Amino acid sequence: xxxxxxQKWALINARLDKLEAATAAESRRVIKQHVxxxxxxxxxxxxxxxxxxxxxxxxxxxxMFRLSDDFINPWFPSWLIAALFFPYFACACIMDTxxxxxxxxxxxxxxxxxxxxxxxxLIRKRHHQFMIALIPYMVVLLTLMIxxxxxxxxxxxxxxxxxxxxxxxxxxxxxxMADLQSMIDPEDGY
Amino acid sequence: xxxxxxxxxxxxxxEAVRSHSGIIARVCYCYAADAGEFDDLRQDILxxxxxxxxxxxxxxxxxxxxxxxxxxTAVGAFRRRKRRGQHIPLDSIVEPAADSGDRLADYNxxxxxxxxxxxxxxxxxxxxxxxxxxxxxxxxxxxxxxxxATRLRRAKERLKSLNS
Lengths: 190, 164
Prior knowledge:
The structure holds two protein chains of two kinds.
Chain A: H1 2-16, H2 20-32, H3 38-71, H4 78-104, H5 113-148, H6 152-181
Chain B: H1 2-19, H2 21-31, H3 35-53, H4 62-77, H5 100-114, H6 119-129, H7 134-141, H8 145-163
């Protein structure tokens, strides 16, 4: 059986070796067109989220502090609204920075199949843990803003923003999970 | 100076890939279901090789490095690809030999057998068929040497039972 398999394999190899020119042409195209890997795609998304979180941890509270006098019920202090926004974006920034560096450090050329797969499983686990921490926080924050809003237009704006954010988030989440799945051996879990 | 170095580096890389293109084709053959997947997977592997080229220090043989990158890409990649409407047989990617009858049957038969194995077992069978040592297989897969031997034996037994 073993010898028979090896003989068949040798015949197949002879045919596959004829693809040398096609593979060489494809590798030139990949370099020229800057084709990105799933890992690069994922690291890029985490990096953008980390930058967004960092910028908004500073800008977000400032905007809320300025707007809250005009749009939020006076019994809810402006500084508290601003203060509640800061930890959300700061935590998001720290978490996404961690995810970015863990994704970036994966080296498919030096790490074994087992190491790459286990690293991707850990990133996926942490990603979900961070979501579990941040999503309820944002739900509480938005509910608080709706309860304290002075007019219906602001409430409609908050709800519209939340729905659009949720849809965009779901789309990006699916893309990130697909990228992570492509680095995970099915034996290590779906 | 930097452009010149970059170009030289690119040429070295292209030469390395060209001279080891058989490894890439064999990994794609083992993990792709049809010709469309073969092309997609080859593109993914080549992108991963180019990305990883900058960190390749020659600590391992270039063939080991290519196996590692290619298998790391292939093991999970098959679940990322969407099903295509049109199924193009895998044997269409290579030129049929003059005496094509038996060889084409062998080609499809072996692919059908290998495609029924789990991804990591496929990797072990591929490395075994390519005459890699147990230590080499352990290095590429990250499995202990004894586990490699056990899993490979089971994979071969499974192939045998599928073949009978």
